[in-house]
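Hi all, posting the design record for the shared folder.

TITLE: backbone redesign
STEP: 1 of 1
STRUCTURE INPUT:
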């Protein structure tokens, strides 16, 4: 067995993508084992690999970790992406939970019925531009630093960049009213490990295509 973390999930973003982002930002190479059909998931469930019968699952440091937030917390702590003290960690947690709320909305778009997609799109754009992005624009303005928390790279910065890039896939000019977030995006994208992850051929996953949705549903439901 290699020393690399091994990620078990379907070959798409979903709840594993924030974990891939954290590992990539930390410069950690990882392997992936894709759940491609219901039988693959059933096998993991039957062999006792999945504590709650669900993926994502990450094999790391002799553990089979499940629950995406627990996995992300562990990786962020291990690779010094979780602030310098308890107060910084609390800020990071608040920011990240807000980002994950928006992420859920972004990821669920392709799973909406056709007659609900237009309304869902409008809701996502409204929440991104009126609830979530103004918060982070103000944070950057108020402290005048390059990173969200503690003036050093943390998981909050990594997850915000991921969220911004997904939101721009929805609406390319979604940051039009947020100049500090535009600068933040350029700055964080240029960190060498992240720049590498954003290159073609990396393990970053593309947006799910509509024709792939039934396959994913068949695996998990």
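Okay, here is what came back for every position:
SEQUENCE:
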């Amino acid at each position: 067995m290699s020393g690399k973390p091994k990620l078990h999930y379907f070959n798409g973003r979903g709840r594993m993508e924030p974990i891939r982002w954290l590992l990539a930002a930390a410069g950690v190479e990882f392997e992936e084992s894709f759940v491609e059909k219901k039988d693959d998931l059933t096998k993991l469930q039957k062999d006792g690999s999945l504590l709650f019968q669900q993926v994502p699952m990450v094999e790391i440091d002799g553990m089979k970790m499940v629950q995406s937030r627990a996995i992300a917390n562990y990786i962020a702590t291990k690779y010094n992406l979780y602030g310098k003290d308890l107060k910084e960690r609390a800020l990071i947690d608040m920011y990240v939970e807000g980002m994950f709320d928006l992420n859920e909305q972004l990821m669920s778009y392709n799973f909406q019925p056709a007659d609900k997609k237009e309304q869902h799109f409008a809701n996502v754009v409204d929440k991104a531009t009126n609830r979530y992005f103004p918060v982070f624009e103000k944070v950057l303005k108020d402290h005048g630093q390059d990173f969200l928390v503690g003036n050093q790279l943390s998981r909050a910065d990594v997850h915000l960049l991921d969220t911004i890039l997904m939101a721009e896939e929805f609406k390319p000019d979604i940051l039009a009213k947020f100049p500090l977030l535009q600068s933040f995006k350029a700055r964080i994208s240029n960190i060498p490990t992240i720049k590498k992850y954003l290159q073609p051929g990396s393990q970053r996953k593309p947006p799910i295509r509509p024709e792939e949705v039934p396959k994913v549903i068949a695996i998990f439901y």
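COMMENT: The domain at 86-190 is CATH 1.20.1050.10 (Glutathione S-transferase Yfyf (Class Pi); Chain A, domain 2).
Let me know if anyone wants the other runs.
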